[in-house]
Write a structure and sequence with these properties.
Helix content is 52%, strand content 12%. It has helices at residues 3-17, 30-42, 46-60, 69-91, 96-110, 147-162, 186-190, 212-227, and strands at 116-119, 136-142, 166-172, 198-202, 208-211. The radius of gyration is 20 Å and the shape is elongated.
């Protein structure tokens, strides 16, 4: 599905949430639709998530009195998903700090505490925004045009998924459409990258514990331990 189509579907879902497609309904099955929404989210079927969320918010209206805790949970979750989608759509027309904020807010809802995620795509990034309390974070600066990067990536992903105490954040240094390793991208210049893959490792308390060769050796040791 193309990006334009996905955006159009998102706009439709947000419009429906404003009451364009459904009217308030006291007989609406909030819990049943909410469970369908959660199942779709678990499968990352976001188009369906937004439609379910729109149905829930439209049926709920503004009056939240006399709702059960489970119903309120579904309503709140639906609003969160639509908020994330609104920020995601808005990001297309925003610049600078607003675009960055919109992206962060969307990711906070759609990708909460993922074991493996990809960020940046060539733009400057604040690594500490992606830390998870109590988790060791490996930041892997990478490019699809770097054979060692693509070679080690599956092992890093497996490490993050096998170990409950580690998350992996891949920092894609390539700007969209740039062929070859994008050494001149904003994020590559921001961290003065001269060789990739490059790693920064943050501890569970949010402190930088290793970078450069030290971080590389830590990652290699963890991978060797994983292979047993």
């Amino acid at each position: 599905m193309g990006k334009a189509t996905r955006i159009a579907l998102g706009v439709t879902a947000v419009a429906l949430a404003c009451g364009a497609g459904w009217s308030q309904d006291s007989t609406f099955d909030f819990i049943g639709v909410g469970e369908s929404m959660e199942s779709a989210a678990a499968e990352e079927n976001w188009d369906s998530v937004y439609v379910y969320a729109a149905q829930i918010t439209a049926a709920a209206g503004a009056d939240l009195t006399d709702r059960s805790a489970d119903e309120l949970y579904c309503i709140g979750l639906a609003h969160m998903y639509l908020m994330a989608r609104a920020f995601d759509i808005a990001e297309e027309g925003l610049q600078d700090s607003r675009a960055e904020f919109a992206s962060k807010m969307s990711q906070m809802v759609l990708n909460p505490y993922e074991d493996v995620r990809v960020i940046s795509h060539g733009e400057q990034v604040t690594l500490t925004d992606y830390l998870v309390p109590g988790q060791t974070a490996i930041f892997d600066f990478s490019s699809e045009y770097c054979p060692p990067c693509t070679g080690i990536s599956p092992y890093l992903q497996r490490l993050a998924r096998d170990r409950d105490d580690i998350i992996l954040v891949t920092v894609d240094i390539n700007r969209p459409g740039h062929e070859g390793i994008d050494w001149g991208s904003p994020v590559a210049r921001q961290y003065d990258l001269r060789r990739i893959p490059a790693f920064k490792i943050y501890g569970p308390e949010g402190e930088l514990v290793a970078e450069g060769d030290q971080a590389r050796q830590m990652v290699i040791r963890w991978l060797q331990e994983m292979e047993g």
